[in-house]
Amino acid sequence: MVWRLTPIRVGECDVRDYISFLDGGEATRTYTLYVWVLEGPEGPVVVDTGPSDPEGFSNATASYIPGGVRQTPDEDTPVALRRRGIDPSTVRAVVITHLHGDHYDYLPIFGNAVVCVNGPGYRQAQDGLAAPVRGFLATGDRLRLVGDEEILPGLSALHLGIHSPCSQAVIAATAAGGVALLGDVAYLYDNLEDDRPPGGCDPAEWRRAIAKARAEADHLVPGHDPRVMERFATGG
Ligand SMILES: [Zn+2]
Fold first, then answer.
1. Rounded (5°) CA angle 58-64-68
2. Model pTM?
């Protein structure tokens, strides 16, 4: 089973370097916000949802994301997905890398999807979830709490627990080998390629998590690097 992965851009913002790097300062660099579409015989599957309330997210993160999220009307997740030919109601599964607003807020538009979240992390985070999402996940039989396991053929979850207790990589078998979407365990390629741990983490734990992901995948993809678009446009 081979999946085709497409990053969909749903906005951008400028983030302080002390978030991006353990040794970072007050300068900012631009992050891209992504939703991922995974297409294959068992699909479509979506990884992360983008923010449904960019203004609220921007207000909550103003100290380290000065200026907030910038989003064009076309980058609103349902609009961006439909432009790519994906109707959210046809999405079979949504896998959430971690339960932060810019990654899960739009879950309720995926009314027919199974939602895969890391189990122990979900139990810790559930009381703090946005009310519409908590209500959505409580109805029907849609929530699937996962550990290190296969979700669908050629698609698995791998718990990493950095950045948020529920952080998990989503690993897809592709024509170019195994690709691990790391969520915010790494924000940027510089974290991975220069071995620069992100801010706010224990560097030894972070390196252990990255090694765990590397053992399972050929390519690691950070959560917010603008270069993801170029690298995937040119074949990954
Ligand atoms: Zn994020």
1. 25
2. 0.96
